Amino acid sequence: MKYLTLVFCAISLSGLSQKIHYKSILVDTHNDAPTACIEKKVSFDQDLTGINHSDLKRFKEGGLDYQLFSIWCDGEKVNPYAWAMREMDTIDAVAARNPDKMVVAKDWKTIKSALKAGKVVAQYGVEGGHMIEDDINRLDTFYNRGVRYMTLTWNNSPSWASSHAAENSSKYTGYKGLNDFGKQIIQRMNQLGMIVDISHVGEATFWDAIKTTTKPLIASHSDAYSINPVTRNLKDDQILAIGKNNGVIFLNFFSGFVDSNFSKRGTAFMKAHAVEIDSLLATGMQKEYAFTVIFDKYKAESEAIKPTIEQLMQHFDHIVKLIGINHVGIGSDFDGINSAPQGLSTVLDYPNFTKALIARGYSNKDIKKVLGGNFLRVYRSNNPD
Predict the structure, then answer these.
(1) Closest CA to 329 of 67, 107, 112
(2) Are 210 and 240 in contact (CB under 8 A)?
(3) Would you state the pLDDT for residue 9?
(4) Which of 104, 127, 103, 107 is nearest to 117 (CA)?
């Protein structure tokens, strides 16, 4: 009887999570599909099962309604601005081929219309201020293309802001924080309605950004430093400051940010396949995607070293304890990471995140906030018209 009760509860929980999940607006603030598709020479409206974490068809199957696509290249890419435009061109082309399924939305009216019609809302987040190449006017160009947030730095640092990697390197000799030009960039972003994103930035840049912005900001894909002390995660005082700013932290699914023990396991895995990784790098593939290809190729090995959803939810619980349910959401980093927790391998697994929220006793109202409502609030605070 006890076994039957447990089975019934599991079935009930699964059914409830499906009902709540698919009735909610699901927003993911960070997906690297544009880069992944270019690197792998595929198109986002193809069936990319076994190739990418996501594609247009699987978005809807997983309950995804609104995606901010990451526009990214590393600091070594020549002409990053041109690369950014190319990446947006790839998604624009997908939307043009599939007008009944996806729309690049540039105003609130279009967003509401698309959601009502069951179309995927697509917008962009530029991941790294280096992509404007020190030209503030390119913020306007990006905004007009559908960019609705910019991550001030990636792991590299533009001339006007320092990244988490730079600030923690003894070799870095540049300015720490935002210089005057960096503050002008934030001011222009506020004027445009482009949300300030502090994932990847150093602590000095973080505090300068908090002091400079007049609008709620976001961490588009970050976790909690207290749970896993890596410099890409947010310390408690930073989390508290984001809450005070009325901003939102969107959880990153990357195993290395979730689990403090993953780095050692991941390093051993990549060392075992170093020859294949080097051969991919020799073709010109960016390092992060070479790692992804190898993790996907050796699925049994890579699955065995992943953390659990429960470990991800420890980050969620910690943030909620500090600043409340109104300040957390999903920024998966799908198609930009080589490993995510077990049960969150692709966009088809979003319902498992909702199931974890229900198991923790969160109300339907709270779950709707986490899945999309919190982002929509910050979006409207930055784009009231």
Answers:
(1) 67
(2) no
(3) 41
(4) 103
| Orientation of helix 350-359 relative to helix 309-323, angle to 10° | 60
pLDDT exceeds cutoff 60 at 12 = no
More confident residue, 4 or 256: 256
What are the strands, taking DSSP E only, across 95-156? 102-104, 120-127, 147-151
* Residue whose token pair is 């980050």: 315
pLDDT greater than 80 at residue 7: no
Residue 4 has pLDDT above 70, yes or no: no
With tokens 């840049």, the residue in question is 205
Angle at alpha carbon of residue 11, lines to 8 and 15, rounded to 5°: 140
pLDDT surpassing 80 at residue 182: yes
Measured CA to CA, the distance from residue 93 to residue 83 in angstroms comes to: 15
From residue 102, how far is each of 27, 87, 120, 380 by CA, in Å? 14, 16, 4, 21
Higher model confidence: residue 266 or residue 120? 120
Cα–Cα distance measured from residue 12 to residue 358, given in angstroms and rounded to the nearest whole number? 11
> DSSP labels for 124-137?
EEEE-GGGGTT-TH
Phi, psi of 309 (to 5 degrees): -60, -35
Of 31, 9, 1, nearest to 121 by C-alpha is: 31
Residue 139 in tokens: 């913020």
pLDDT of residue 1 exceeding 50, the answer is no
CB atoms within 10 A of CB 14: 14
Could you tell me the domains of the chain? 24-259+307-382 (3.20.20.140)
Amino acid at 122: A
Q: What is the mean pLDDT of the chain?
A: 94
| Dihedral (CA of 254, 257, 261, 266) sign | positive
